[in-house]
Design a protein that fits this description.
With about 800 residues, the chain is mainly β. About 5% of the residues lie in helices and about 40% in strands. A hairpin with a 3-residue loop joins strand 65 and strand 66.
Length: about 800
């Protein structure tokens, strides 16, 4: 379902600008030339992109080293961008595939003061993309959050981010500006100030951004990766004299730019009524290939023209920042005949230098003895020698003025043709964001052209605005851009909930909430008091030290556990290591385990059976014998006798292990369970049911992003609470092939016997009831027979046992605490 918000991202009715200065009709296309903002510095670390064991700065590495060293930084404003992947596995003997599984690492920044230093941290963004369970048209699927790490970007920008034509939205993690003083010789780790800091699991990406200012003093700001000790932010294994983090040639780079992560271009256009619908506004590209200017209507950004022979004449080279990195190892790559006076230790990563380290052969134009690493480019050079300059994290600001001298209103459309996921922001001439929040394009398998901004151009006035385009991380560079004049608007839309996601706190087992802290697994049932589960070191080793990356599910037979790190994205080689599913005792220690042929992406417990989706849905009653299930969708259970699933927008319910039937009640958008409660979170609405036959709706002031539970209290977004006790006031009834509902709950005695409320039972089966107060008897009239009951009068309400109900109906009756089955 799609609820279009009142938000049009963006047909923007901008106030007309009265300023002059527009170009005359027929003037040449404006030159697209970006200028760097030199009020600060940009620290960029994407090398080595894949973190191996030999790149670590802890004592598990025989030769510990930093990833990047930024030494002797003085007072200035800095932005830092870190994008890495944990690839700590060892390859197979033949060099292909994963021979061993990797381990958790932590990526951090060490600020070591050379003088007494005052550091002000103004913004941070951090993310290891999580797995989320999505529901679309009632069907469930699990996916990893976008590798562009837009939660980190939302945090860094301090504003929500929405995705084009999608219900996906990314919420910022709250952060407050922090000032810290570091005395000379002392050090502080940046992770201390990151609210959502966490370890980086094997084969997962991590993205970190920060704006900070060195107000006074001088410090080294060095980036490191360390093997996780199991205790978050524990740096006891850090080697203080770790070696310098030298550049490794792998087509990615690192360095510092003498500019902020921002470039600006001013463009002035004049249009009139002769600009027909779909006309593209031309710009003039100037680069080292088109040095006299090349007028185009489609141009590329985030692209090194030296590295792309197909688009080098229309690449906006001026948008690329230039990086330098001081590295003593560079000196070891020079040919032996190169004089020392012509050598230097500074790598330069830009469109004017090769990215070579060791001698690549005669392809570079040098003999081995005369070879110069990172040599200046001139003439025709093989593209393989040129660096990948994706300009990641750089705000490319187009400051645009369009003078509409016609008599008809027009619209400016920004078209972006790419498969990558970009971030777009639109501002008026005062710098105010016109769209309620930034919008992302959304990654696609092939290049697609989308309209990412729409601005109204009133007739007879000049309109000013700023369009900002950012390529975030982990996506391909080479953005194809176009400015289009249109007769009609093309609003950029987002949706609240076209694609809902499961907001259940995955640390909730169905019985209690778990927390992994200081190397121990803790549990709580009230949300406040945590105690140790008693998990032994043997079990922790069995889980490869990744207890914090396991999912636990409470069942009456014990806790089911499986790895949940790779549920969404097809980490095919990685999944091979995590095919085991475990049954644990009440102390969270292993009783049984089963290894499936494929990785288990989901698990549940319903109707007294264990279910696991390992490519195919399997079921087991004892966790020993597993058979393929007849079900094609994973059921969810209420820890009792009810199970449900959704398929193609239709809800199916099973009572007491009987066949799945479709209730008459209108189903919610999807169904899941949290303990013994079924639920669906839909925008600001929370639907809750004890049996999927009737639903209680709760509406909150903000969109539901997280759901937890303590007893009968559901917690929404970690703050708001709702008591759901009232949903247990009804009971499910299966009568033949009908699903019905008793308006009164069952009575459960101390010996756990279930009794059926007589009057509600009579209403469901079509019997008549009369009450003789003097005799304390209830008379039931059914099928021309009369029955008298007086035995089970509890608190003034008469109940029936299974046997008494069978006496009335002449049918088999099974009574459970949450359901009644009448055959």
């Amino acid at each position: 379902m799609k609820k279009i918000t009142a938000l049009f991202l963006a047909v923007l009715f901008l106030f007309p600008s009265l300023s002059a200065g527009a170009e005359e009709p027929g003037a040449d296309a404006p030159v697209l030339e970006f200028a760097a903002n030199e009020n600060g510095k940009y620290i960029y670390c994407n090398n080595p992109e894949w973190i191996r064991s030999e790149n670590l700065a802890d004592n598990s590495n025989p030769n510990p080293k930093f990833l990047m060293n930024n030494e002797n930084l003085g007072p200035d404003q800095y932005t830092m961008f870190i994008s890495l992947v944990n690839r700590t596995e060892l390859p197979k003997a033949n060099g292909t595939g994963f021979g061993t599984q990797g381990f958790d690492i932590e990526v951090d920044v060490l600020v070591r003061a050379k003088e007494d230093t005052e550091l002000r941290l103004t913004s941070v963004g951090f993310e290891v993309p999580e797995q989320k369970k999505y529901y679309l048209n009632g069907n469930a699927y699990t996916a990893e959050e976008d590798l562009g790490c837009f939660t980190a970007w939302a945090s860094y920008l301090k504003t929500p981010v929405s995705q084009l034509d999608s219900g996906k939205s990314y919420q910022p993690v709250s952060f407050h500006e922090t000032t810290v003083t570091v005395e000379k010789g002392e050090a502080v780790w940046l992770s201390r100030f990151i609210p959502n800091y966490r370890e980086v699991p094997f084969c997962r990406v991590v993205h970190m951004m920060a704006d900070f200012e060195i107000v006074s003093g001088m410090a080294d700001v060095n980036i490191a990766a360390l093997r996780s000790t199991g205790v978050l932010s524990d740096r006891s294994n850090f080697v203080k004299d770790a070696a310098f983090g030298s550049y490794v040639r792998e087509n990615q780079h690192k360095g510092i730019a003498d500019a902020k992560n921002q470039v600006d271009a001013n463009l002035n256009f004049v249009i009139d009524d002769s600009f027909t619908d779909g006309t593209k506004l031309p710009v003039t590209i100037v680069n080292q290939y088109a040095y006299e200017g090349n007028t185009v209507t489609n141009w590329f950004t985030n692209l090194n023209p030296r590295a792309d022979p197909w688009n080098k004449y229309n690449a906006a080279e001026s948008s690329l920042l230039k990086f330098r990195y001081e590295d003593p190892k560079k000196l070891s790559y020079y040919g032996k005949n190169v004089p020392a006076s012509q050598q230097n230790n500074v790598w330069r990563f830009d469109s004017e230098h090769a990215d070579t380290t060791q001698y690549p052969g005669r392809i570079c134009g040098f003999t081995k003895n005369q070879y110069v690493p990172n040599f200046p480019l001139s003439g025709s050079v093989d593209e393989s020698l040129c660096p990948n300059l994706g300009n990641y994290g750089v705000f490319q600001n187009y400051h645009i003025t369009i003078d509409n001298q016609g008599k008809e209103d027009k619209y400016f459309l920004y078209k972006l043709n790419t498969m990558s996921n970009n971030l777009i922001i639109l501002r008026d001439e005062n710098g105010d964001v016109l769209q309620p929040y930034p919008v992302t394009k959304g990654a696609t398998a092939v290049k697609e052209s989308d309209c990412l901004a729409c601005v109204k151009l009133p007739a007879g006035v000049s309109t000013k605005f700023t369009l900002t385009v950012v390529l975030t991380t982990n996506h391909y560079g080479g953005m194809e851009n176009a400015f289009v004049v249109s007769d009609t608007p093309s609003p950029v839309k987002t949706y609240d909930d076209s694609c809902l996601y499961n907001v259940k706190n995955t640390s909730f087992t169905g019985n209690e909430t778990l927390k992994w802290a200081d190397g121990n697994l803790l549990k709580t049932q009230d949300g406040r008091t945590f105690k140790n589960t008693g998990m032994t070191e043997t079990t922790k080793r069995q889980f490869h030290g990744r207890v914090g990356e396991m999912r636990f599910l409470y069942t009456p037979a014990g806790y089911v556990a499986k790895s949940c790190l790779y549920d969404g994205t097809p980490y095919y080689n990685v999944r091979e290591f995590y095919r085991d599913v475990y049954l644990l005792d009440e102390s969270f220690n292993i009783k049984l385990s089963h290894r499936f042929d494929s990785y288990a992406t989901d698990m549940s417990y319903a109707n007294g059976k264990f279910y696991v989706n390992a490519g195919t849905i399997f079921e087991s009653e004892d966790f020993v014998t597993w058979n393929k299930s007849a079900l094609t969708e994973m059921p969810v259970g209420n820890l009792g006798n009810l199970a449900a699933y959704m398929k193609n927008g239709r809800l199916f319910l099973s009572v007491g292990g009987e066949e799945f039937l479709q209730p008459e009640a209108v189903p919610p958008a999807y169904v899941d369970a949290i303990g013994n409660v079924f639920y669906c979170a839909d925008g600001r609405d929370l639907f809750v049911s004890a049996n999927c036959l009737s639903w209680k709706k709760y509406t909150f002031s903000e969109k539901i992003n997280a759901l937890g539970r303590h007893g009968n209290i559901l917690t929404v977004n970690g703050a708001q609470e709702v008591d759901v006790s009232e949903v247990f006031s009804t009971t499910a009834v299966k009568l033949g092939d009908q699903l019905l509902e008793l308006a009164v709950p069952m009575l459960i005695t101390e010996d756990e016997t279930a009794y059926i409320p007589l009057r509600a039972f009579a209403e469901v089966v079509g019997a008549a009831v009369s009450w003789d107060a003097d005799a304390g008897e209830a008379k039931v009239f059914y099928n021309k027979n009369e029955f008298v009951f007086s035995k089970h009068n509890f608190g003034g309400t008469m109940y029936l046992s299974e046997t008494e109900a069978e006496e009335v109906l002449k049918k088999d009756v099974k009574a459970y605490p949450d359901a009644v089955i009448i055959e």
